[in-house]
Design a protein that fits this description.
CATH superfamily of the largest domain: Hexapeptide repeat proteins
CATH class of the largest domain: Mainly Beta
Distance between the termini: 92 Å
Oligomer: single chain
Strand content: 25-35%
Strand order of the largest sheet: 6-9-12-15-18-23-26-29-32-35-37-38
CATH architecture of the largest domain: 3 Solenoid
Largest sheet: 12 strands, mixed
Amino acid sequence: MKLSEIATALNARLLGDGTIEIDRPVHPADAEGPRDLALAMDPALVALLDGSPVRAAVVRDQQKVPAGRLDGCIVVGRSRYAMSRLLDIFNRPPHFARGVDKMAVVAAGATLGEDVSIGPFCYVGANAKIGDRTILMANVTVGAEAIIGHSCLFHAGVRIGERVAVGNRVIIHHNASIGADGFSFVTPEPGSVESAKATGNVEGTNREIVRVNSIGTVMLGDDVEVGACSAIDRGTVSATRVGRNTKIDDLVLVGHNCVIGENCMLCGQVGIAGSSVIEDRVVLGGQAGVADHVVIGSDSVIAGGTLIGHNVPPKSILMGYPPLPKKETFEMLYNVRRLGRLVHDVDKLKEQLNHLKKGG
């Protein structure tokens, strides 16, 4: 692909020779030949271009490049966004074959769209529907009466429960579970948790734990992405919902009855307890935890490791536990670091005061 074609696709500025042929984009340290395109959008990487075999690079606007070092250059503005478009151009999709593999099982009544791919050891349940151009890699399960939209990609080991509904262009990574039963149990009489919440003491005893069946489902909107080994539990009666274009990282748990809005980002190891509402465009940092029946308002940013136990207004920025605004969190941490010196100063004052008393 010519350098000029890449610049046009990125809607970026081209400097120098646009006829340079490019085979692949690379980190500057990994460049092996003149057909590599060095990604030097970080100023610290520009120095690696000196002595590199590349003829062309992608750099950020207002970034200085060693004079005479490159024959061609693509200049971009927002570097990370440019990276996403560039990797679209050079995308390497997984290997698959159209049609149903002879080692796959498609149950009676299932409907397959045009140009689908059902890999080896897949199972598609009775009356399930798979949309056009959807790809199931090896060992994927789609439960009975599930509905899968068009142009989806399910990587190996994905499990889709019965009656689950998945939108269009959804990507689900290895070993994710969509539609397992929720973690929902009850005791015949008020148990330890209920008494602890009500009185602050453990007065009840969990002599028996009774299962609450999950007869609801899960509904994923268009363009949702779910990371490897994540789990989204089905609702107790209604649906657990994930809105359009929301991105979920690896090892995330979304509990039963939760409603996740559009364009949210849930980072690795986030846990959201049942019946919580995460409104639109919320970002939950890695290992953030959200208690049950909590509402987090739209456009909020919750830092990694934060534990949310109460409702959060829109556009909040919270971190730590208890969750506080960023400025207050840093102030609290700063004051904690000063406690040792404060104790030392108080001890010295006590010694001086005792000495004065004895002298008096």
